[in-house]
Design goal:
Four copies of one chain form a homotetramer.
Chain A (H helix, E strand, L loop, with lengths): L3 H6 L2 H8 L7 H8 L7 H14 L2 H9 L16 H9 L7 H18 L12 H11 L4 H23 L10 E4 L2 E3 L4 E2 L4 E7 L4 E8 L11 E4 L4 E8 H4 L13 E8 L5 E3 L2 E4 L2 E5 L3
Parallel strand pairs in A: 1-9, 2-10
Antiparallel strand pairs in A: 1-6, 2-3, 4-5, 4-7, 7-8, 10-11
C-alpha cells in the first residue's frame, strides 16, 4: 500500500496508477489532483479529489455520474462494474436479489433515471437493503439540483472508503464504526460471563443472523460485535440468552426472562454504538452507552 | 347461578343437578359431597369435593381418571367430550391442531396411556400449547404413583375453575390472574400517552397476536392486557411502538428505538404480572412490577 | 360547613358571614360577590371573588394588599394576624425563626415594602422557607406593575385554599398534591416489604425529618407520604434502608448499598409526585412516576 | 528500588538490609526467608516471609505481635512507631483523633490487650476509621486462637503493601483498587460532559470531602476517582450536579433532580468499583459496574 509521503513525491504516472480507480471510470480526477500536491493528510487528499469533481462543469459532472453502475444489477448482465463496485454491492447481497426485490430495484432505477437522467448512487457499504430502499424513495422526491448534490455527497462517502483502503498516512478520515455490548448481572453486582448473544439484522421483510458470541469474564465479547468498517444504517436485534445464565438462581419455571431481545437502529455508520444490558432474573435496562 | 347458601340448604337432587358435572362424568362426587354440608366458603366446598376423590379407592380413582377425554382429540372423533372439556380445549386451539401437532399429541397420548393406563390430564386453561407439551414430556418421566397424584392435582385446578363459574358465594378460591403494563416517558417525567402496544404469544414454533392497544393519558391501557381468568403459562412478547411517540423529539434517523420488544414468561396463572416500560429515545428499563 | 347550594340561596348576611374572612380583612369582596350569585361550582365562586378584586380600582387594590400581614413577623408583635394567616405561617415555622433568619426576613420585607409600598404576599402553604426566600429575592427584581399582578395571583392561591376549606360543593378547584413511593425488589421480582423510609426536607441551610414509614406487603406505605393539601415547593430527600432488607442475601460486608438517598424537588404543589425505587443489592433506579 | 532478580542473587546482608523492615522490628523474618531463595515472583517472596512467621513457635509469634504499635497512639507519646506504621496511621488521621475518639481507641486497645495480651493489629491502609472501629468491636468477641490467626492475616496484608512498595519484579500481588464513575445522559443518548462530581467519605459520625471533579467529553473523570493503592473499606457518597447540566432542557423550576447523591460502601479494597450514573432530568439509575 503506497503511503502519503510516496504519493506526495512520486511521478504523475505512479500517482495516477495508484489513485486512478478511486473515482469510477474517471482517472481524470486523480490527474487533476496530482497538480494540487502536496497533501498534509489523507483527508486533505480526499478533499482535494472531491474538490476537482465539485468544481467540474455541470455536463462533466453528469457524464461522471453516468459512468456509475446501476444498483442491484445482476452479475452477468451487460453492465460493467468496477471491481470495487462489485465488491461493495456484493457485500449487501445486491447481486443475489430475489425476483421481487430485483423488480423493485428495476422500477426504482427506472423512475430515478427518468427523473434525474443519472443512475442512483449511494454508498452501499453504509446501508442495509432496507435503508437503501428508504433512501431511494425519499431521494426520488428531491429537486434535480439538490439530488445531484446528494449524489456527489454519496460519491464522497464511497471514494473516502476506497481511498483509506489503498493509501496509508496521517489524518485518515474516520470511516469505521463499532458495535459492542456488555452484560452486567445487577443481581450479583458483577459482569455476566457465559451469556450467549446473537445479533440479527431485522429488515422490513426479512431477518438475518449476523453473528453469535458468548460473553467473557468481563461480560463483554472478545471482539466488538461489528468493527473494521462503517456500520450499516438499519435495524438490528441483539438477543441475550439470560435464562441459562440465571438458571441456578431464578425461582420461576419457566423463568420470567429467557431470551432478552433488544432492537435498535443505527443511523451513524462511523460512530460507536455500545448497547449494554443490565439484567437480573426479573428486570433489565439498556441504553446507548459510550 | 346458585349461591352457596342455596346449595347448603337445597335438596339432594337440586345439589347434584347443580354440581354433578363439575367432575367429569362423575356425579358421585357431588353426591358424596352433599353429605358434608354445610360449607362456609366456595373454597371449602371445592376442598370437600376433592377430598371425596382423594379418599376414593385406587381402582375408583383410576376409573374416574379414565373417564377424562384425551387431549387434542379432534372434534368429530368417536370421543365424547363434556361441554366443559370441549370449551376448555377449544380455547387453546387444541381442536384445530395441524397434522404434525396432532401426530405429536397422538404419540404423547399413546406413550402416556401405555405407561400410566389413564389419559393425560392437565388444566388446559392455565397453559399454552408449548407448556402443555413441555409438561407432557416431563410427566412421562414420573413414577406412576407420583403421576396419579399430579393428575389429581390437575383435576383440582380444572374443577376449581368449573366450580367458581357456577357457584356464587363467599371465599371463592383465587383463579384469576392479570397482565398489565404502564409506559413512563422518563425523558419528560410523565406517562407516555398514545403508545401503540401489541401483545403476542411466542411459542416454540409459532407466534400469535393476542391483542393490540394504545396507552391512555396515564400511560396505561384502559383494560388490563389479560384478565378474567387464569393466565396461560407460556412466553409472551409485548411490543411498544415508541418510535412514533418520540418522533418529534428524537434526533436520529432512523430513531435508535422504534419498536421495543419485551419478552417474558408467565409461570403463575393466578398472579398479577405488571410489566412496565420506562423509556427515553435512547434507553429503556422493564421489570416485573406489582 | 356550608355547601354551595346554601350559599347560592341564603341571605346576604349569612353569605357574608360565611365568606367575609376569605379575603384578608376585606369583607367587601364577599359582599360584591353576593350580587353575582348563583355559582355552578366552587371554582366559579372563587373566580367571581377574585374578579371583584381584579376589577377594583388601583388604589383599592393597594389598600387591600396593605391589609395583609408581613411575612415572618413574630407572634406577640404589634401586627394583627387573622387566624388563617397565623395558621398558614405557623405551619412553615415562620413564627419560630432564628435571629438570623428573622433578620433576613426583616431586610427583605423592608426592601420589598420600600420598592412596592405593600407587604410581600405569597401563598405560604405551597412553599418551604427556601422557596419563599428564593421567590422573595426574585420578585424584588420585578417592575411594580408585574409585581402587583403576581401578588394578586398569590392572593388567588391563598384564598382558593381558604375557600375549599369552608365551602362544600361540586367543582372544587384542585388544591391538593400527593407524594408517594413504592419499593420494588428487582432481584426477586416482588414488592420489597418492611423497608424503612425516612423523608426529609433538605433546605439550603438545614434539613428536617418530615416522617418515617415502613413499606407494607405491596412495597408501598399505608398512607401517601404527603397528602391532604398542597405540597410545598422545595427539596426533599427520601432515604430507603435497603441494607437491612437485603441482609440475608447480600454477600458484601459492608453491603454495597445500605441507605439509599433520593433527593428531588417539588415544583408543582397540586401534582402527584410518585418517586419509586427499583433496587437490588447492587443497583437501583428511580424516576418521577405516575 | 531493588528488583527481584537482585534479591535472588545478592548477599545476605544486602537482602536483609532491603527487607529487614518489612516485618515490624523483626529482621529475623527476612533472614529466614533468605535461605528460601530464589523466588519466582514477588508474591512468592511474600508468601515465603509469611510462612516464616506462621511456622514460628507460638511464643515467638506473640513476641512478634507485641512489637507492633498500638493503634491511634498520639504522636509524641512514648511509643516508638516505625516510619511505615507512622505513615500508615497518619493517612487515616489516626494521629489527629479528637479527645473522644482517642478515648474510644484507648478503651478498645485496653480491652483488646487485656483479652489477647497483644496490641490490636489491622492493615490501616485498607480501612476508614469507621471500619476499624467496627472490626475492633467484632474481633474483641473472637476466641484467642482465631484472633491470633486474624492478626497474622492482617500482618500479611500490611507487609504485602510494604513489600510491593520496595521490591520491583514479576508477579506482584494485587494491592490496588480503583474507584471510577461515568455519567451517561440517557435523554440524549450520549456521555454527559461537564457534570460536577464530589466524592465524600460518609462515616458514622462525620463526613469528609475527598475530591471534586468534572466529567470530560466521554462522561468520565480524567483520572480514576481513587487509585494507586488499596481502597478503604467504608461508606462513600458521590454527588453529581446534574441540575446545571440539564438546565437548558428541564422544564421544572426548581428542577426535579439537582444534586444526585449515590451512597455506597466498599468492602474489597483491591477491587474495581465502577459506579456509573445513567440520568435524565426525571430519572436515574446506578449500579456496580465493571
Amino acid at each position: 500500500m503506497p503511503d502519503l509521503d510516496h504519493l506526495n513525491s512520486c511521478s504523475r504516472d505512479a500517482f495516477t496508477a495508484a489513485l486512478g480507480d478511486i473515482f469510477e471510470h474517471s482517472p481524470w480526477v486523480a490527474e487533476a489532483a496530482f497538480r494540487l500536491r502536496p497533501f498534509a493528510t489523507v483527508a486533505a487528499l480526499h478533499d482535494a479529489m472531491m474538490g476537482v469533481v465539485r468544481r467540474a462543469a455541470g455536463t462533466e459532472q453528469l457524464a461522471f455520474l453516468r459512468r456509475h453502475p446501476e444498483l442491484g444489477g445482476r452479475v452477468g448482465r451487460a453492465e460493467i462494474l468496477t471491481a470495487a463496485s462489485k465488491a461493495e454491492q456484493g457485500g449487501l447481497g445486491l447481486d443475489r436479489l430475489s425476483a421481487e426485490e430485483f423488480e423493485q430495484f428495476v422500477r426504482l432505477n427506472a423512475a430515478y433515471r427518468e427523473r434525474f437522467a443519472v443512475p442512483f448512487i449511494i454508498c452501499v457499504r453504509r446501508h442495509t437493503r432496507d435503508s437503501i430502499l428508504r433512501n431511494f424513495e425519499r431521494r426520488l422526491a428531491n429537486d434535480p439540483e439538490a439530488e445531484i448534490r446528494t449524489a456527489l455527497d454519496e460519491i464522497g462517502l464511497i471514494t473516502r472508503l476506497r481511498l483509506v483502503a489503498v493509501v496509508d498516512g496521517p489524518g485518515k478520515p474516520k470511516t469505521e464504526g463499532t458495535m459492542s455490548t456488555h452484560v452486567l448481572d445487577t443481581m450479583d453486582g458483577k459482569p455476566a460471563a457465559g451469556v450467549g448473544i446473537a445479533l440479527h439484522e431485522v429488515g422490513a421483510s426479512a431477518r438475518a443472523l449476523i453473528l453469535t458470541a458468548t460473553t467473557n469474564a468481563d461480560g463483554r465479547t472478545d471482539q466488538p460485535l461489528i468493527s473494521g468498517g462503517p456500520l450499516r444504517i438499519g435495524s438490528y436485534e441483539l438477543q441475550f440468552s439470560v435464562g441459562g445464565y440465571f438458571a441456578r438462581r431464578a425461582a420461576a419455571d419457566p423463568p420470567f426472562l429467557d431470551v432478552v431481545p433488544i432492537r435498535f437502529s443505527i443511523a451513524e455508520p462511523e460512530s460507536h454504538y455500545h448497547v449494554p444490558l443490565l439484567v437480573t432474573p426479573w428486570s433489565y435496562s439498556t441504553y446507548r452507552g459510550s
